[in-house]
Amino acid sequence: MSARHSVTPIDVTEVDRYDHETDVLIVGYGCAGACAALEAGETGSEVILLEQQSGGGSSALSGGEMYLGGGTPVQQACGFTDSAEDMEKFLLAALGPDADEEKVGLYSRDSLAHYQWLVGHGVPFKHSLWDSPTWVPPTDDGLMWMGENAYPFNEIARPAPRGHRVAAEGFGGKVLMARLSEAVENKPIAIHRDTQALRLIVDGKRVVGVQARHFNDTVSYYARRGVIITTGGFADNSEMIAQHAPQLVGLGINSDGGDDGRGIVMAQAVGAAVKHMSAGQIGISAVPGMMVRGMAVNNLGQRFINEDVYPGLIGQAALFKHNLQVWVILDEQAYEEVPVDERWGVRPHFVAETLAELEREIGMPDGALQTTVGEYNRHAERGEDPYFHKAARWLRPMRSPFAAIDVRRGMVAPSEGGTENGGGAAVFTIGGLHTTVDGNVVDLDGNTITGLFAAGRATSGLHSWGYISGTSLGDGTYFGRRAGAAAASSSVHHPREAGAA
């Protein structure tokens, strides 16, 4: 970062005057910021929200899935029994090694109450199930599987679908943010748009405010109780990606363009610790409905995962273990079984009557696909998959003609045109600031930094090196609420006389 964009904190004695004072100052107006504002406002605290764009952030562009469970009305209406214990077991297994046990446990136990809180603030969920693998259903169904019924997770916890999708035509993130924004704007919460946070203001070891830019003006904010950072991840900051998550370099980015990591480095500049900065969600450029009916193989023609698992986990395996040199192999019946509106415009790149021909066309070793498909078919005849344990529902022998789809050629959601875009995956970061369950930012000594809180993708939330759809919006809304409540209950710190030593 250049000098004019320095994140070095400003000592309170260097501030000539404060343009605004408030109890709680929230930086970032996505789902985490909105929920933090609502919860802080409920206490009677004065709240100001800063937003560098118009509001909504990456939350508004998301599919709208929220990972919720424990027996929600949507689950019950669709005939599923669920418990917080099973939800917790699944998340700890699916979110990677060193997933935050305290956060996952609390989130799971409070999930049903959090669902009710969201509904109480106008967030709609339809009581119906979408029952096959997909990134985003082409319907407004309100519940979907996120791999809970796939191996090995179906042996770790009792399966139940927990992907709660905000009711919408197409992507539901815009509806989620519209409802949360309506709730915020019906409260006495000040929203300062077109305002970019630059650096934190400190009084000794306590964070007491933010210096920001509003168009060409530098503006100073004083926060009597706390500053909450909800600025998102750092997928749009190529320098930070190269530094922390080099395997994501050069891939497509799933964001609103504003995930620049500034909130993270502002906090680091006052001593904040970070966690899991190399972790990312990998939205592989493959249609789940095609993969599950066929197979995903590496460039040696070998399967490497069960294709009915959550597709983001397939993406992580494809990138981190196979550098995205991955193909989807299927036959004509498998392709035709995928409804047109679920194909996302993806067509086979190679078609051949025999596997030997297909191997030659895509440059695989002679016999590679023949061996893999032969073994697959031999067991599929009996509805079995001893290699990766794909569910019997999706197993049948593949027959000529065969097709191959090159994942690296990319694809684009129908809402964005539905054509190839190259790159093989769209990614975002899931590592960030180390926080407590109440959103307190932790320093390198393991102590909380007084006056500083964070939530959402600016933090290392529930995850480590795993991801399940809905755990960003779920994590952001729930821990945003907790951060808002914690900041509002912090002790009041009155500003010194401006410029006084």
From TrEMBL:
Alphabetically ordered keywords of this record: FAD, Flavoprotein, Oxidoreductase
Flavoprotein in keyword set: yes
GO biological process: steroid metabolic process
Domain of life per record: Bacteria
Cofactor: FAD
Domain spans labelled FAD-dependent oxidoreductase 2 FAD-binding: 23-473
Signal peptide, first to last residue: none
Gene Ontology molecular function, alphabetical: steroid dehydrogenase activity, acting on the CH-CH group of donors
Pfam families: FAD_binding_2 (PF00890)
Protein's UniProt keywords contain Ion transport: no
Protein name (database record): FAD-dependent oxidoreductase
Source species taxonomy: Bacteria, Bacillati, Actinomycetota, Actinomycetes, Mycobacteriales
